[in-house]
Every structure is written in C-alpha cells, then in structure tokens.
Fold:
Amino acid sequence: MQTDLSSQIADRRSLLDAAPRVVSLESAYKTFRIPHQQYHTLKERTLHPFRSRTYDEFHALNDVSLEVPRGEFFGIVGRNGSGKSTLLKCLAGIYQLDRGSLSIDGRLSPFIELGVGFNPDLAARDNVLINAVMMGLSRDEARRRFEAIIAFAELEEFIDLKLKNYSSGMTVRLGFATATQVDAEILLVDEVLAVGDASFQQKCFEVFQRLKDEGKTILFVTHDMGLVERFCDRALLLERGRVLSVGDPHEIGLLYNQVNFGDPVHERPRDEGDSGMPVEVRSCWFEVGQEPVIDLPHGERLDVVTEIRFNAEIDDPVFGLTLRNDVGHTIFATTSQWSHPRTGRFGPDEIVTVRVQVDAWFGPGRYRATPSVARSGSGADTLVLREDLASFILHSTRSSGGVIDPPHSFEIERAAMEAR
Structure:
C-alpha cells in the first residue's frame, strides 16, 4: 500500500514537472514605508508643513522567486509577518512589485479577505449575484448557481437579511461559497479554512480536493502543516520576506516547526529519506469510545491512535506522542518507556496500532499530534517522527485562558470577626 502511494506521488510529480508554468515570479521585491510621523487631518499637515517626514522601511518580499506548473497544489507557509499574504496580493495584482518580474498564464481567482466588496446594506441574495458577476460569471449563470452558493454557506434562512446584520463568520462563509463557483484556472487561497465550525471546514476540504482532482492550480497560504502535507505537492517557506526553502511538504513542515516551535518528545531522525526506513508511521487519528472524531467536548476521554509499520526487525522500540496547541506550545508529551520499558520484538511487514489514552482537560482550541518511534534505550535515536500529522478541535462552554483546564475546586473560609 505504501509502495502504491509512493508510486502515485512520483507519477503526479512527473506530470507536474512536464506541465507548462502558469505562475512565474522572479527576483520579486516589495517594500512598505512606515512614516515616523503620521498626519490624521489636513489641518495637521497645514500647521506643521516642515515636521520630520522620515520613515522606516519594511521589506515584505526580498528576492523571492518561484515557478508553479499547471495543476500543482502549492503551499506557502511562514510565521506571521513573513510575507505570505503580501506575496499572494502581489500575484493577485492588488500590490505592484517594486522590482522583479511576474507572469500569470490563466484566469485567476483570489480567495483573499473574503467578503471584501460586499455591500452591508444589501441582502445576501443581491450581494451574491453582484459579486458573482464581478468575478466573471454572466447574470444568468450567477442566478443558476445562487441556490448552490447559499446551500454551501448554510445560510438558507438568512438570504433576505442585510449583510450588516451578519456575523463575520457568516460573511466569510458567503464569500467563500461565492468564490468557489467562479470558473478560474488559478486559485489564490489565504487562510480561508480558519472560518466556520468543524463540519463547514470539512466541506471546504472536500472543495479543495475536488479542485485539485480537476487539475486547478492552487497557491495555498496556511499555518496548518497538516493541511500542507495533506493537499500540497510542494511548499515554500518564507521567513522575513526571504525564501528559506522550497520542496517536499513534509520536509517544509519540519523546517517550519524548527523555525517556530520547540522540539517534540523525540529528536528528529538523522535520515528521513523514504528509502530503507526501518519504521513508517502510516496514519494517526482520534477516537472517543472507539468512534473516530475530529472534534470533542472538554473533559472527554480521548484515544490518540497511531498505525505503524515495521520494515526491519526492531527490539523494544520506544513509542512517543506529543500534542501541541495552535501556537506551538507542547501541552502533552509521553513515551512508552515510562510505562512499558520493554515493548517486544517487531519484525518486517508487521503493522502495529498504538493507543495513548488521555483525558482532554485542555483549553478550547485546535491540537496537533506528533507520533514518533525511537530505538530502545534513552529514546534519543529516533527512527521516525511525523510532525503535526493529525489534529482535532476541543470545544468548551467556557474559556479560562489557560493552556489546561483540569478539574478543580475552590474552598473559601471566612475568618471569625474579633469582638470589639
């Protein structure tokens, strides 16, 4: 099965390498000037015409080059302020490059700041039709697709409500649903999957998988390394406006986390090449009561399940698991050596399921699992580690602001008042 998957990836890579380049960016520079003194009114400018007009320069893009072939799902990752959104806006024509060359071959649709351009004094019905026409659909086509747009956004009960009465999430969902109906060849996607509940996000995933299967070219900005590895053919890592690396999504994800976060419970293996790996982590998922879940309420007993395949004989491997929150803090980490110092001998082609059971007394938010396997002993010799392989959302009726929210109680004792 693993061989078939590797073969499919290799075949797709060969097709993409032979495809014509539809997005080409060479030596791109973009700088913003931030004035030290800002005028807020014409009166201020008139009264102080000689006030210092000095400014700082923020280099959002610094010698950025990339080429994306037709049909590729291309990830763009990096920390906040690294230049990801600026890059997408330059590609969309929202910003002009200071220097460099840009070539786009195909009809382009930006999924950037969805909902911008909607009229808050118009109802959803009018906004959808106007927006769809502005994006290139004919009036008749926009009307034919209206019902599908509203159904996807799950806003059937609110089509005649003015947008100024919509929540921000409802507005972005409407914008996303409208944008998906545009017949574009190249899509620029900027963190739009952060909107909506878990079921709506799953619908978004299905849309992107469909677009990928249809051969659309997609440039996808995200902080979610799980999505990068799931969807992307290649990825680019930006740091302070410069390209750190371009390549395999898994490798880029590891480098991204190295730039951002602390290390997991196991060190990264010295050699992470696919050939000759003694152990493979095939998949990871979450269960509550033996039922797979992608979201769960606070305090539930959670099973983190990892499927592992051994390709060589290994004695007493150490199984590890790290859970991180959205900002990369390690919330929970464990290895089998603390409870099972001797896990046994595993032979070639043997498949093992490892379960770690933990009560989810964490704060609400998204959590990502990093499973790993190391050789026996100290656990320092890591055989395989899959960074942020799977994620779940924990929801709660309250938010304490802490990274954990375990069961606790208050005791309040009132001291006896002294007699006067």
User: Anything to note?
Assistant: The first helix runs from residue 2 to 18. The chain has a mean pLDDT of 84. The two ends are 84 Å apart (CA to CA).
